[in-house]
Give the backbone structure.
Amino acid sequence: MTSSVPRFDQFIDPLLRFLATNRDGIRTLDAYEALAKTFTLDDAAREERLASNGQKLYQNRISWAHFYLKRAGLSSSPQRGTWKITDYGRQFAEKTKATITLASLDSVAAGVATDVADNTLRISDLIDPRKQLAWVQRDAPISEAIAKMTFYDYSQLPVLQNERTVIGMISCKSIVRRFARGDRPGFVRDCLESEMPVVVTPDRALLDVAGDIVEREAVLVRAADNRIVSIITPYDIAQEFRSSSEQFLLLGTIENHLRRIVSRYPRDLVAATFEAGKPERKFETIYDLSFGDYQAIIQNEANWRFAKLQVDRSFFIAQLDTMRQIRNAVMHFDPELGAEATLELRNFVRLLRDIAPIT
């Protein structure tokens, strides 16, 4: 049955135009709703879901449209659940009168201005704006801290004087230490950690802060208005990278299969393709090849016969290019890559196992 939901590339132009009218950024859910109205999607279309993860189909396709806008430097994700057009994207939308297509995005990617945000994973990518930070005051009873830590499943709890003033941190460990000594602490102030917590801003690169998160077991996040808005723990990092770790493994499996396929090609053909793009280097072994090299060799129509794959060439080449795009996003830790990208990787691995098994 044919879906009534537009293809993801049909959302690209209206999404960028919509983002251009909301220069301060827009909630992802609001963008979904606006584009659903633009295409007058009825209730049935809005309720179509992916079999893989139950996500609404139209939302998934809009998210992929935004992925390509961001890859071209036209949009960004300043924090989880928010999309914002870049200055470059606004200029591009203003000067482009024709419908913006996937092909036109490929043509502008090389012209991205230096002020366009990169894909570095930042603290903001770990913050869920829908969640309210739980905290206690210094003179609160210890029972209140324990109740909040239990309810919110926190192992650490910020101790604040108000939303902007940090007093310290209380943790399961600091409470247990007092009881282990035979004390009977009655208030939060009796169980404060000895060190003040590290406080970071949402724009800090995660890799710059990861050491503090692991060593201190938590950092606090201070927003632009000086409020403490979140606590980041090793668990949050583990959750963020849970899907990424599987994607890395799947990509490794795909590269193993592609390496086996390319090994069927004549050595001089492989060497010529490799050295054509890297004249300063000489081809020595198949392990010198990058993913792009595998793609360039395999998709060559004149030499397709060497691949010895019992599969439609056009379909395989299209899927291979999708894998390249997902790979680039994974290697940049793109926070918007989710279950659908993982499913596409799994499907391609399954296809490779059927048509090019590794023996």
User: Anything to note?
Assistant: The longest strand covers residues 156-162. Residues 236-355 form one domain. Confidence is low (pLDDT under 50) at residues 110-118.
